[in-house]
Each structure stands twice: as C-alpha cells, then as structure tokens.
Write a sequence for this structure.
C-alpha cells in the first residue's frame, strides 16, 4: 500500500493512491463520515471531455475521485493497448485544476492478479454497434467498471455521451447488479470544427485530422434530414455513408447505425429516443461518434 | 416497497422485506449507524446446516440478514426449479430462533426484471466437478450472490462447506470484483448416519434415503485409505466408486474427483489442501458431498 503526492505546489492537494485496498479503505472512511463520493473513471490522457465530467460532479459530491487506468482486458489482441497514450504528470495537473481530490492509479497486477477468473458480461445491448467489431471489449469495460465501483464506492459516477453504447451498457449493469450508484452522463465535447474529443485523436496525421470532421458532418447531415421530415433510417444512413466516402480518403466504415436508445438495436423508422452512431477507421485510427435525438 | 411481520408472537421481532430497493436502503441505514451486517444467503427450506451458519455469524455482527430466494437462473431447464421445496412460515420460525433480524424474501420479477441482461461468470474454477454437469449453474450462482451482496451490503457472509465448489467460486468472485465482504465457511452438517444435510434430501424415498449414506461411506473410505498411506488419487476414486455401486441400486455417478482446494482441478497424487468431492444421482435426486483434507 503506497501513495505519493507530487512535490510541486500546483498539485499539492491532490492525493494519488495506487493500491486498490487502500483506495477502498479511504472510500469506506469517507462514507463513514457521511461524505458523498463522486467518481470519474478514465483511461488517462485526459481532455476537455473528461474535465467536463469532473466539473459536472464537483458541486454534487464531497470527495471527487478520478481513476486513471488503461484497462488491458477491454482491448483486443490487435488493438492499441501498448500504444495508448499515457501522461500521469499532465493528467494530475488537469485533475487538480478540475477539483479532483483523489486520483486512483492502480497497477495492472493489482487489478488483475494471477488467478483472476471473473468477468461481468452484459448481453443483448452489446450485440450491435461496436460489439461485433470489438469482441470482448464491453466485457472488459463492464468488469473493470464493476471492480472500480466496488473499490471507490461512489454515490455518483460520470461517463461521456461520446461512448454512447458504453453508457447504456454501464447503466444496465449497475441496475442489473443492484450497484448503489447514480450514473451521470455528460455531453460530448467537441473541437471547434466539430470533431469529438478523444484521447485517440492524437494518433491522427494532420491530413487525417482534417478529414476526421466527416464523422461530425455526417451526423449533422442526418440531423438536418430528420429535421426536414425524413424518417427512413436506410435513406439517412446511405446519405451519411456517401458523405464520409466523399470527404475521407479510403475510410473503413465499420458501421453507421440508427438504434433505439433503450435497446441499442436498429430502428427502420425514426421514432422515440434514438442514437445515430458510427465507427470509422481513418488510417490506423478508429473513431466513433454519435448524436442522441428524441421525437 | 412492502414489508410484513407475522402476527404470531414467536416471530414478532423478525422483519421480512420483499423489496430489493427497501432492503438496500435498510442496509445503508445500518451501515450509517456503524453496524456490522452478517448475511446468510439461502434458497429456503432451511435445515440445520443453514441454522449453523446463522449461529456462526450471530456473535460477529449487529444485524443478521438471511435471504430466501429460489434463484431461477442457477437451475438448468431440466432441473428442479419448479419442484424445489418452499415453506416461508417454517423458515421464518427457524430464522427467528437462530437470531436472524431480517429475512430478505424478494420476488423473481424484482431480482430479474424484463430487460435484465447482466451476468457474472467465474471461469476455470467452474470447468470441473459440478460445472460440466450443470451448464450455467455457477454463472447463475455468481450473478445472484453478486446482486445479493450489493443489496444487503454485508461485512460478513456465510456459506456451507457442503457446496465446496460454490464456496471457492464465491471467494474468487468476491476477490476478483473487489467486493468488500469476508466470506465465512461453515462445516457440513450431517444426519446421525452421516448423510449431508440438504433441502433436496426430502426428495428421497425411504429406500433411497437409506442407500444415500453410501456417499458418506465412500468419503470415509477415502479418508481411511489416505490415513493408511495411499496417495494415488485413481486408486482411491476407484475404491469409492466400487463402494457406491455396491451400496446403491443403479446410481448415476456423475463424478468422484480429488481436486486441489485452490484450483479445483484434479490432482494425481494426494498433497496439500485437497477436496474429495462427488455427485451421485439416486433415483431422481442429485446429491453432492465432499471432504476437505490437508497434508
């Protein structure tokens, strides 16, 4: 059980805890003092999207905890676990300035010791969208979030709408497993040209970065078509794909789907609460984005 | 949210709660008062084995909670969910006399509402013993126990050694998912002739009931052989099977195995902490039993 604080005055009040046992002990001590715990789980390399979630919870809790953990079990064998960007110093400063009290920064061996054999799986909601493209991904997400909730014991936990399917899966898991935590969803943060913020945007070359706005443009197009009366999902999806193929050099369109917000399964006709979601690979970078709309 | 207390004076102080939300609220209220919660999850039709677990926890906690829930998702489609014996009145009296404060008695629709999609799975440890014979069983057990722990928020939870594999699976799940609960294991309670107590013993005809002691006899034989120096698992297993075939009319021996206590995988040579475990069907009744030994 180790914890270290940075020497530099700017991050003096931020506590960094790297042991799950110690973090859980602290969480129970806070709960015993009747303090409300807010929690923002992240994989680090923080951007304004993460910071906005911290600011969303800050006024609603007494202790604000962020976890920084690049979770190996949510990456496929050919995915970017090893390359995923990491910068604890920079992240700690951002956390400090966003009012975070504790950064939980566990080691992989602490989270997944030898003889680790348990997984949490959310079915049905993971059959669509990113599910088929990233086998095991949501199982890894559900498992680590369940573990983190048990370690951090939050009253509130915030997730970004950018990962729309993740939000629905975690809401479902929390409800199904009776986890006593309120899930708060923060809106997607975007660059000035519309690109959704993501730690993975750093992978994009300057040319790819410019073309990446096609995802946002296609969502705006869909929104406009629906606003103008179109209700046929197939027509909207087809127009979105054409736009992406026009604006991006050799994109790999994994999916463009319009799904029901509750079931995450495709709707033929636009009605109720829907999510327009897409995943596109530009060069070696996989990007996702979505709009949530209600009719 | 409903809860009812029985009118009869003998069970006056026992509270029965049938809503998960209300149970969880009560659990947090008790924790806020710094009370230690002890928990004995059961499927009801209580016997002396369950009562011994309650008595084991009673001196170690402030609030003792028992759940009575015949968990549909741990039964296979051809198993005895519908026939499983139920008697709340009788169970409530036994709980009362064992010092239980609250019986949590949820409805199936409350535990598994429409749109329930989440499961907890413990791998590797469920590949052996009952695992292959009861596909999905331990997934159902792990899921319901995870849910119950989140609802009841226990500091301590007790399970019987009779369900040896269940004990190891739940210990693993609690550790892997960072569930803040101490797992306490109570010894197997037996009838005077050695038969392990089980709610399912009620299924046995008088003739079957008499022959059912063969399971205990075979475990005692194994113990004697080991005591006399035998270390070859195969020889011991063979002698156990012969005894069962001699003492029982047309038994279906699902397995007789000698496994390592930590891995639940077979050992060829007796050493360390081992479990000698067996499952035998006598007529329509499936019985399990085990001895845990250390060398």
């Amino acid at each position: 059980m180790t914890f270290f604080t940075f020497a530099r005055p700017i991050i003096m009040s931020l506590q960094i805890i790297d042991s799950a046992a110690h973090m859980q002990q602290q969480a129970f001590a806070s709960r015993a003092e009747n303090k409300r715990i807010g929690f923002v789980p992240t994989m680090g390399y923080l951007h304004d999207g993460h910071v906005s979630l911290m600011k969303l919870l800050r006024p609603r809790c007494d202790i604000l905890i962020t976890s920084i953990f690049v979770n190996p079990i949510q990456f496929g064998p050919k995915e970017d676990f090893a390359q995923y960007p990491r910068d604890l110093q920079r992240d700690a400063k951002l956390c400090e300035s966003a009012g975070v009290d504790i950064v939980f920064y566990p080691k992989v061996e602490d989270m997944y010791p030898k003889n680790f054999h348990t997984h949490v799986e959310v079915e049905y909601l993971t059959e669509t969208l990113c599910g088929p493209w990233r086998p095991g991904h949501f199982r890894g997400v559900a498992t680590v979030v369940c573990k983190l909730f048990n370690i951090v014991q939050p009253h509130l936990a915030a997730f970004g709408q950018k990962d729309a399917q993740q939000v629905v899966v975690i809401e479902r898991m929390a409800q199904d497993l009776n986890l006593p935590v309120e899930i708060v969803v923060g809106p997607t943060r975007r660059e000035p040209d519309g690109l959704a913020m993501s730690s993975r945007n750093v992978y994009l070359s300057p040319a790819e970065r410019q073309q990446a706005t096609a995802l946002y443009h296609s969502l705006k197009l869909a929104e406009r078509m629906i606003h103008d009366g179109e209700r046929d999902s197939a027509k909207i999806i087809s127009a979105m794909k054409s736009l992406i193929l026009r604006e991006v050099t050799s994109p790999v369109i994994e999916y463009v789907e319009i799904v029901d917000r509750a079931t995450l399964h495709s709707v033929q006709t636009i009605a109720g609460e829907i999510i327009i979601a897409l995943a596109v690979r530009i060069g070696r970078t996989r990007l996702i984005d979505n709009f949530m709309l209600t009719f």
